[in-house]
Amino acid sequence: MIGYIIRRIAQAAGVVVGVTAVTFGLEHLIPGSLAKAILGPRASRPEIAAFNRANGLGRPVIEQYLTFLGRLARGDLGYSYRLNQSVDSLVVHQLPNDLVLVGSALVLALAIAIPVGMAQATHRNRATDHLATAAAFTLYSMPSYWLAILLIAGLSTGLHIFPPEAPQASTVGGLLADPRALVLPVLTLTLINIALFSRYMRSAAIGTLAEDYVRVARAKGLPDRLVLSRHVLRNSLISVTTLVGLSIPAVLTAGLIVEYVFNVPGVGLTYYTAAVNSDYPVELGITVLAGIVTVLGNLLADVAYAVLDPRVRYD
Amino acid sequence: MTDAVRADRAARTRVPRAFMGHRLGLAGLAVIVALALFCFLGPAIYHTDQIHTNIQLTNLPPGQGRPLGTDSNGYDILGRLMIGGRGSLEIGLAVAVLATAIGVVWGAVAGFTGGLADAVMMRVVDIVLAIPAIFLLIYLSTVFRPTILLLIVVISLLSWLAPARLVRGEALSLRTREFIDAVRVMGGRRSRIIVRHLVPNTFGTIVVSATFQVADAIILLATLSFLGFGLPPPAATWGGMLSQGTTYLLDGYWWEVYPAGLIIMLTVVAFNFAGDALRDSLDARLRPP
């Protein structure tokens, strides 16, 4: 298994290098001169020359790419001339807010989706299962902003229970100081994730319930509660782990949209603002980061799968 | 009529019959047909001006002559839904065709060739799949001015990965089958095997995946326009209408919010139902009668 994990890490590293190559290519896709695109149309000739020299734009492309890769390896995601700040300091500043938002939504969603999926599997094809499937399907087909708008219309402008905007604080402490304003963004993300995960959990549990070892556990007289918690739940969670790892791009996308709709001060909103202002270095820095997070998520899910399930042989 | 002919005919009608028996799938298909008529025939019957803004007609509630009211530019909302739907359906269908075509060729070549070529081609898929599509799409639409053609090409270049993986999986198992060996023994070239024998056998997978691709492309497109990076004004987009209407949520102009949101959801659900039904009925073909 150690061999498998090493091979898997090497593969992930390869994909990360590929992601950086794509981003580097995207940067050079900008029509006209990169200096003018980043410094603005009113940049003077010496400024452009200085920019080109500082970024090595006169050197061969391969050399430029290696420099770019070297910078990334040191955690340098680029520099925003518009904000006069490095992209990594911008991101590091806001990442805790995203962890609070996305993290709490993920934990809540798993805490709800796992029991719901289990209940659906044990009550398969009965009214409750159909009801939960219909609810999950409706949520799943909703674009996340549409769900967010419906929640704002119902719970905020309609019933005036929660404010329609996230707390406008730049730190986690400030964000948590106004928990009522955090409810709608977290609720939106949680509902979207529940729709994803409860489907995974239902089909995983249905698969596990059909296994021989579940029948054996029942045959030897183990109470139903213990069969479900010790055998069905634990085995179903193994495949759910992988699927949660694979759903990271969807979670990041939903995060971007929810931050935009509720004005949550996080990396997603920073990306949006950068896109509105054509602040390319910020856009590309965050894109590369999203790619790396996705690759790491997939890697962790695969490694967890190998560790959790000793039956799987990787040779 | 010999038994073989009868069995062949039964097998051929089994897929349409299974589809007709799938109530949700039929409902999805009916909605798709209705939407197509609404968007492409509708404007011929229900004439509205969707180019010139009219300050005297802004934010009017539904009433005589304007069943869904007007928006903050004075555009008639029902008429705008029709025009906006054209772009969504055209781009959605074109992306499904183009992305599926790229994916099928890529996946079939990778799966059939195997070895190093397969490994390299699949790592390319992993790389593009690792970057969330919406981030790339927003970046590209800030660098280039979006047009329908550009959006079709770019969304396709981000959407061919799923069909590529599916077709590669099937190609891996198909290439060891006897009929492929038979072509090879008779001197058929690689290109012939892939085009004439391998790809036709993945037809079911391809059609189902293309149906889901339409839904995914429409969602992606609506998200892009909702965030304001879609087709520039005065082009009508469902996502743009929803985003503009949301501004007036507090004023109670519900007719500017709900029609656009509901029609996006309806379209996506319809294509997903149709895809589900297609998958089930193609499974029915594989089952013995």
Protein architecture, described:
- The complex is a heterodimer of chains A (315) and B (289).
- Helices cover 77% and strands 1% of the residues of chain A.
- Chain A has helices at residues 2-27, 34-39, 45-54, 61-73, 87-122, 127-141, 144-158, 172-177, 179-209, 212-219, 224-246, 248-262, 267-276, 280-308, and strands at residues 79-80, 85-86.
- In chain A, α5 runs antiparallel to α6 (127-141) and α13 (267-276) runs antiparallel to α14.
- The longest helix of chain A has 36 residues, at 87-122.
- Chain B is mainly α and 289 residues long.
- Chain B is built from 13 helices and no strands.
- Chain B has helices at residues 3-20, 23-40, 42-45, 77-113, 115-130, 133-143, 148-159, 161-174, 178-185, 190-198, 203-226, 238-246, 258-286.
- In chain B, α11 (203-226) packs parallel to α12 (238-246) and α12 (238-246) runs antiparallel to α13 (258-286).
- The interface between A and B is large, with 47 and 38 residues.
Summarize the structure.
The complex is a heterodimer of chains A (315) and B (289). With 315 residues, chain A is an all-alpha fold.
Structural class of chain A: mainly alpha
Shape of chain B: globular
Report, as a whole number of angstroms, the end-to-end distance of chain B: 19 Å
Beta-strand percent range of chain A = under 5%
User: What is the residue-averaged pLDDT of chain A?
Assistant: 84
**Residues in β-strands, percent of chain B:** under 5%
Greatest chain-chain contact: A-B, 47 and 38 residues
Helix and strand element order of chain A: HHHHEEHHHHHHHHHH
Summed up, the helix count of chain B is: 13
Morphology of chain A: flat
Distance between the termini of chain A: 8 Å
Q: Measured on Cα atoms, how large is the radius of gyration of chain A? A: 24 Å
Radius of gyration of chain B (Å): 23 Å
Outline the low-pLDDT stretches of chain B. Answer: none
